[in-house]
Design a protein that fits this description.
With 97 residues, this protein is mainly alpha-helical.
Amino acid sequence: MKYIVAGHQAFTEAEFAELALGTPVELWLGVEDESDEERAARLDAARDILANPEYRSLPDDLIRLAARVVDENPGLFNVASLARPARRRIAGRGVAA
């Protein structure tokens, strides 16, 4: 499948997400074995990006992107509905007058 976002071609799902978000995915998800200082710097950079008016809609865009991925790939999470157990009604234990 060919992904094209804003005139740029993405060859992997990660590249597609990066083009769709306008930022590297690692900025938001982090990387394995990052130090506390690296994490703090990454989160500080993310806050700076979100403060930029160009990226203010990024959280909403990300939620829409995630919802679209889930909608287009229903087997992705292999989610099954669970039956809700019937609620039992417990009689009150009041004192008879």
